[in-house]
Write a structure and sequence with these properties.
Number of strands: 19
Helix content: 25-40%
Oligomer: single chain
Shape: elongated
Distance between the termini: 65 Å
CATH superfamily of the largest domain: Carbon-nitrogen hydrolase
Structural class: alpha/beta
Strand content: 15-25%
Radius of gyration: 26 Å
Length: about 550
């Protein structure tokens, strides 16, 4: 059985950095050529980064993308390069360029344009109408397709097979969410079964705003077996040999690569999600030109987990904790925050907010005269903390990470311009119960109480009034989170929830909080998406909205 040697070039492109992305592509192509590969396959829109969004409305941007593809073509050799780019030929296309021996020998335009979830490609691109893209590579008939083309039964991949393809390359920018790797593998196996072709699946890796791409590029043989797979959440050049029918014109390539057909063992579910959070945080910070981050440290579970993720992402020297105790902060909260900072080896400072708090109360006293203290006075403390963090950000150039979770964001249990003040929300897509699970898991990975045990067992509290606890304002999280997940991620209505056995009064109260908090969520910073429906790109409800779905 003859073999087609292919390099799956799992690179981390930066959106808009066409020059640097092109250099990265050329370096990987040179490595593939040196390894004796017949072809090198790159991710979808590798030249521009994904998703480029409204950048493609700029004619110059699209022109620059095409020019970069032509430059890559001039530097191609015997190893055929298949590279994702934006094509400007009589329109705007999500395209794959095929280059060999110094020439751009073909271009394929993506046919199936996704327009659901986080995708809105129909806003930007025309669907391809070309004949199936079959290209000869070392005598093998190779079909070229792009991402969504593989998700349609009887679609472009079936046409490639009917046109004589023996192997199908699929270029991808497939973002991660929980369960995505298994879902993706099921779809690809369906295409193998339908086409009878081996599939080479090259996926993007890296963080881009809310999205994180896992990579995990792979090769399936004609029996649907994974014969090669790259590690998730890191750049990698995977060399694979794809078996095809014997033929004299396909000579066996020299064995130059030290490792061929590696199958990465993969990660456990929590490790996979945790690594997604780390990569997304690192890339958001670095790709936006920052080196260091600041975090408001309360001694609570949320800020503790964010600090650990940030340290894993950036290194202890680049993480700065800020402890801002008030008159209501408990001694153990301050001690827990200090212990965590010392365990992580990060810089931290203590800035009591009491002087500012009292000054604000004095300034507001005439306006609040005769009124009982309530949420207004509580939230002053949080907003003072936000102001202090932003002042430190301005002075030292830190990017501020916020510490709110999905449960709090859902019901609006957060202070606008206070604990929502910052640039990136690391755990924005984690329910509160998940925060505890990740914290425990990270301690298990460390083999010690990296996050102090007391943080894991004490009742959660905002500590904005004496003896405050979350469960005084909200149901216990083991009750709240499943209800929120059904309402937010599964799109059930209040009537649906009641039919499932939830208490109607609780449903009315909690769904009302979710709906009323939409204006707050629109003002929150972006954060890592790890579920199939995160707040932001996935869930786009109107702020002004009176639909209650039967409650």
């Amino acid at each position: 059985m003859a073999k087609l040697r292919v390099a799956l070039c799992q690179i981390n492109s930066v959106v808009g950095d066409i020059g640097a992305n092109t250099k990265r592509i050329l370096a990987a192509l040179a490595a593939a050529e040196e390894a004796g590969c017949h072809a090198a396959v790159f991710p979808e829109l590798a030249i521009t980064g994904y998703p480029p969004e409204d950048l493609v409305l700029k004619q110059r941007f699209v022109h620059d993308s095409r020019q970069a593809m032509e430059r890559i073509a001039t530097q191609s050799g015997t190893c055929t390069a298949v590279v994702g780019f934006v094509d400007d030929a009589d329109g705007c296309w999500n395209a794959a360029g095929i280059a060999a021996d110094g020439q751009l020998v073909g271009i394929y335009h993506k046919r199936e344009l996704p327009n659901y979830g986080v995708f809105d490609e129909r806003r930007y691109f025309r669907p391809g109408t070309d004949e199936p893209g079959i290209h000869q590579m070392a005598g093998v008939a190779v079909g070229v397709s792009i991402c969504e083309d593989a998700w349609v039964s009887g679609g472009p991949m079936g046409q490639l097979s009917a046109a004589g393809a023996e192997v199908i390359f699929n270029l991808n920018a497939s973002p991660y969410h929980v369960g995505k790797l298994d879902q993706r593998l099921d779809v690809l196996r369906q295409r193998v079964s339908e086409t009878g072709c081996a599939i080479v699946y090259a996926n993007l890796v890296g963080g881009q705003d809310e999205l994180v791409f896992d990579g995990a590029s792979l090769v399936l043989d004609t029996d649907g077996r994974v014969v090669a797979q790259a590690p998730a959440f890191q750049e990698h050049l995977l060399i694979a040999e794809v078996e095809v029918a014997d033929r004299p014109e396909l000579a066996a390539p020299p064995v130059i690569s030290p490792e061929i057909n590696r199958v990465d063992p993969g990660l456990g579910e929590l490790d996979e999600q945790y690594d997604a959070l780390v990569l997304a945080t690192r890339d958001y910070v670095h790709k936006n030109g920052f080196t260091d981050v600041g975090i408001g440290m309360s001694g609570g579970i949320d800020s503790s987990l964010v600090a650990v993720i940030a340290t894993d992402a950036l290194g202890a020297d680049h993480v700065h904790g800020v402890l801002m105790p008030s008159r209501y902060s408990s001694d153990h909260s301050i001690a827990d925050a200090e212990t965590l900072c010392q365990n992580l080896g990060i810089d931290y400072r203590v800035i009591p907010v009491e002087p500012g708090h009292q000054a604000f109360l004095d300034m507001l006293a005439p306006s609040f005269d005769g009124m009982e203290p309530d949420l207004a006075e509580e939230n002053v403390q949080s907003r003072i903390r936000g102001t202090l963090l932003m002042a430190l950000s301005n002075k030292f150039g830190w990017l501020i990470l916020t510490t709110g979770n999905k449960s709090e964001s859902a019901v609006g249990y957060s202070t606008l311009y206070g604990d929502t003040a910052g640039a990136f929300a690391v755990i924005k897509d984690l329910w509160k119960l998940q925060v505890y699970a990740f914290a425990s898991h990270r301690n298990h990975r460390a083999g010690r109480d990296l996050i102090p045990e007391n943080v894991l067992v004490k009742p959660p509290s905002a500590e904005l009034r004496p003896d405050q606890r979350d469960d005084q304002s909200l149901p216990p999280y083991d009750v709240l989170d499943p209800l929120l997940e059904a309402y937010v991620e599964e799109d059930l209505t209040p009537a649906d929830l009641c039919s499932l056995g939830y208490d109607p009064e609780l449903v009315s109260r909690i769904t009302g909080l979710v709906d009323r908090a939409e204006y707050k969520r629109r003002q929150n910073p972006p954060g890592v998406r790890i579920t199939a429906k995160a707040f932001g790109r996935d869930r786009r409800l109107p702020i002004t909205n009176r639909y209650r779905g039967g409650d």
